[in-house]
Each structure stands twice: as structure tokens, then as C-alpha cells.
Design a protein that fits this description.
Helix content: 40-55%
Structural class: alpha+beta
Number of domains: 1
Radius of gyration: 15 Å
Number of strands: 3
Number of helices: 4
């Protein structure tokens, strides 16, 4: 499973508005683990994964671990000032766009 940089940045930049949960079982008998934004952002779905686990609690725990791994990876990526993500975020036009959406200060 891969996570796009934009999704990873959204999770990293909005940690207080990220919800990990399970939406029950799908038709294949897999629990559907979800990472989404909160009600302040219309419950926007960011990731959903079919999980072969024994309970909804295990699915939520997996999604929380995934969220934490994404945040950790983005912290490392942003700490490396020569990474593609850091270079992109330093671009003046990107900084202007981030200010509009209120994320520029979180990326410093």
C-alpha cells in the first residue's frame, strides 16, 4: 500500500483533526480501516484499507499505527532540507498557497 505525499502532508499537518476508525466488515469479510478528517473538514476520507484482523479494535489500532508511521515519515522527510518535499514546500508559489489554506506555519 502506498500513500501519496499530499495525503501524508494532510495527515501530518492536521494531526488534531485526524480520526482513525473501523467501518465494519466488507463483503469479503475484511474489516475496513479508515483514516479521515474530522467534522470540521466534512469527514473527508483520506485512506481506507481492507484488513484481515480479528476485530474492529484491531483494525483501529492498525490505522492508528499507520497514522503514526505516516507522521513520523513526514517529520523525517521535512527535516531533510534537500528532500523533494522540503524543496517543494520552500517554493514561493507553494508557500503562498499554503498560507491560504493555513498550513504554512505548520511546515516550518
Amino acid at each position: 500500500m502506498g500513500v501519496s505525499r499530499i495525503t501524508a502532508l494532510e495527515i501530518y499537518g492536521n494531526q488534531n483533526d485526524i480520526i482513525c476508525e473501523c467501518w465494519g466488515e466488507n463483503d469479503d469479510g475484511l474489516f475496513v480501516g479508515v483514516i479521515r478528517r474530522g467534522p470540521g473538514h466534512n469527514n473527508k476520507l483520506l485512506l481506507d484499507v481492507g484488513l484481515k484482523v480479528d476485530s474492529e479494535e484491531e483494525a483501529v489500532s492498525f490505522m492508528e499505527s499507520l497514522r503514526d508511521s505516516i507522521i513520523s515519515a513526514m517529520e523525517k522527510e521535512l527535516a531533510d532540507k534537500e528532500s523533494q518535499t522540503s524543496e517543494l514546500l520552500q517554493d514561493d508559489s507553494v508557500q503562498s498557497a499554503l498560507k491560504v489554506v493555513g498550513m504554512a506555519k505548520r511546515m516550518d
